[in-house]
Amino acid sequence: MNAAPTIDAVREAASVLRDRFDTTAPRVAVVLGSGLGGLVRAVSNPQRVPYSEVPGFPPTTVVGHSGEFVLGTVEHVPVILQAGRFHLYEGHDPSVVTLPVRLFSELGVEVLVVTNAAGGLQPTFRPPALMLIADHINLMWRNPLTGPVLNGEPRWPDMYDLYDGELRGHARAVARDHGIPLHEGVYLGLLGPSYETPAEIRMLQRMGADAVGMSTVPEVIVARARGIRVLGISSITNVGAGLFQGVLDHAEVLEAGRALAADLEILVRGVVKEIGVRS
Ligand code: HPA
After folding, report:
1. Contact 245, 134 (CB under 8 A)
2. Distance CA 223, CA 225 (A)
3. What gap in Å lies between CA 143 and CA 108, rounded to an integer?
4. pLDDT digit string (tens) for 41-52?
């Protein structure tokens, strides 16, 4: 595992980004999941900074995750996009995985939109499909808040209404207005990187999960500790192992993610617009 960044490292990264971007501070941050990089299209006047130019950021190692920040506006609201995320399964320390969220918080971000690719556990989910995350189950056996408390963060943050009820309401309304089918359910995070066995999928279904993936949970926990409101959307790219005949393949996950990009863009645009109107 690589070393945990300190709060000074987070501040240094934030000051580098502030100097590089000549726009106002972002209000909304969007994390792009596997195959969802097309959302960058939604940004007007994009300015890009690769991770290699931000102190403390290792390169990403996953195909489909490019590794840059894109700052600009969506529906006249200043936003920052994170194209390329860090996963625990790459061997990163949880504090590296959540470094972007702490950086967003230093930049003054109020709302975090997290997207991811996930396997569907509900027989009614027919991939490719979108699922609004209503809650999560952390089975990654890691928590990004272990260790010394970083300043401003509570030791024991509450996890009630973690996926903000009001933002979910906005997302449902946008989906309804545009005729976009939108499921809603519980996302369960596993460490990965192996996909699940059919026996594990049956177990996860009984635990109350509707979708399973290998990301998101650490970022959302840190967002809550930092007082950032969260909207989470899963792209259900496949059904869980054993619920179909065949093998799971990352290329298919990416492809299914791309098929959902247009609907996801409409959803994110609509929610960001609503955030802009209400403030
Ligand atoms: N399992 C875990 N993570 C995933 C899956 C899956 O089936 N699909 C996309 N990410």
Report:
1. no
2. 5
3. 23
4. 889 999 999 988
- The mean per-residue pLDDT over the stretch 18-30 comes to 85
According to the 3-state scheme, what is the secondary structure of 63-84? CCCCCEEEEEEECCEEEEEEEC
What pLDDT sits at residue 4? Answer: 60
The arithmetic mean of pLDDT across residues 103-112, rounded, is 96
Percent of the chain with pLDDT over 70: 94
Distances (CA, A) of 135 to 68, 85, 129, 208, 232: 28, 21, 18, 11, 9
Give distance in angstroms: CA of 162 to centre of ligand 1: 22
Atom 2 of ligand 1: nearest residue by CA position: 213
Closest ligand 1 atom, residue 240 Cα: 7
**Closest approach atom of ligand 1 to CA 239:** 7
Residue among 115, 130, 195 whose CB has most ligand 1 atoms within 8 A, to mutate:
195
Question: 7 Cβ partners below 8 Å, 6+ apart?
Answer: 102, 150, 151
Catalytic residues: 34, 65, 87, 89-90, 117, 214-215, 238, 250
Q: What's the whole-model pTM score?
A: 0.94
| Tens digits of residue pLDDT in 149-208 | 988 899 999 999 999 999 999 999 999 999 999 999 999 999 999 999 999 999 999 999
Residue 96 tokens read as 């590296």
Tell me which DSSP letter residue 155 carries. S
Q: Which atom of ligand 1 is nearest to the CA of 248?
A: 7
